[in-house]
Each structure stands twice: as structure tokens, then as C-alpha cells.
Amino acid sequence: MDVLHEVSVMIWLVMIFAFALNAAERYIAVRRPSRISSSKYGGTADKANDGNINAIFKRGSCPHNGDSLKPWWAVDLESERLVLSVHIYNRVDVPSQLHDLLLGLKDTWPTNKGSTLVATDAMCGTLVGPQRSARLMIQCEKNAVGRYLVIQNDGRSALTLCEVKVFGVHRALEKLSDVRVGLKDTWPTNNGSTLIAMDAMCGKRD
Asked: Origin, by domain of life (predicted)?
């Protein structure tokens, strides 16, 4: 294998690896199957993850629950994921409705029988309030792993999530951490740290 070919192969490997790092953390809930505990005013579950961030309810892009205790919205991520953060676009015409939220992950669809999120579920975080911000971000706790993300109001308030963006990684990429990508003038060796300060760095994932 000549030197030019070796360099070409190494560059392609770096590009592929960098693409994998970039794709690891992304919006993983858009247009996936979703459900809501009950709905009215035409506010169906799919409107919370249709990719439309319009936050005015009458424009038809926000779900709305019926009159149920501890209403919830859930999305099927279609495989087990490590969820890193959840971004919620709040209804701008009645922003104070968004409060006392629990966010967690389950292995099955939630039901309307009692409390939806239980102690054995992987919790992502909470959101108190009332909230008046147009966009809210919940940084998930460590080990927030599961297939079904559930957002539940811990009372009887309306649940109008005008868009929910979920960022996370597939379990296959969960251990892709503390990784550095760079270019060297020679083949790497197993003697100590392979990439050093004088090498050209491409990127890093913590």
C-alpha cells in the first residue's frame, strides 16, 4: 500500500468517525409514534413532535389533553435510547399552564391507571413553575435510558406541549465517550497517548 493510499484511507476513516460523532446526539423524536392520555380541541398527540415549533394553539400545532388527573404525553423512540436533554416549546398565549412536570423513560407505553411514572422508571428530570419562557430545556439525569419518553403533569393542569425535541444517543453509541479524532504524520503506536499536542486535532467527544 503506497503512502498516498494510506493517507487517503486514514482521512476517510476520520471523516466517517467524525460523522458518527456528529450524528450521535440529535433530535430523535420527530414524527415518531406518540400518544396522549386524552385529547380535546383537536389537540392530538402527534402535534407535539411533528417538527412544527409554532406555539400558538389556534394555529393547530399543539396537543391538548382532556380533563384527566395527571395527564401525560409520550413518544416511542422505537429503540432503547440514552436521553441527554429534552427541549419543550411552551404555548405562548397561555404559558403559565406549563408547570409541575415529571419527565422519565419507560419500557412500555404508559397507561391511565394511577401514576404513570413510577420509582422503577428511569427519571430524566422535573420542571416546576409555572413557566413563562417560550422554550425550556431539561438536562436529563445520568442513566436516563428507555424506549418511551413520558412527560407528565403531576396534577390536573392542561398539558399543551407545542413541540418536544428529544436529544440522545442509541445505546450502541452510549459508550462513545472521551474520544478524540485527529491526524498524524505517521502511523500511531501503542506507546502512551497516541494523539499528542502537536498533532492536528479534528474534534473531541466527552
From this structure: Eukaryota
Q: Where are the beta strands (DSSP E) in 46-93?
A: 72-90
Residue of 187, 180, 168 lying closest to 25 (CA atoms): 168
Type of residue at 74: A
Specify the pairing of strand 72-90 against strand 200-205: unpaired
Domain boundaries, the chain: 3-24+180-205, 31-173
Residues with Cβ < 8 Å from 58, sequence gap 6 or more?
Answer: 93
Superfamily of chain region 31-173: Galactose-binding domain-like (2.60.120.260)
Lookup: cell for 201:
486535532
Question: Which DSSP symbol is given to 30?
Answer: T
- For cell 440522545, name the residue: 168
Q: How far apart are CA 136 and CA 33, in angstroms?
A: 22
Cα distance between residue 82 and residue 14, in whole Å: 25
Q: Measured at the alpha carbon of residue 156, what is the angle toward residues 154 and 159, in degrees to the nearest 5?
A: 80
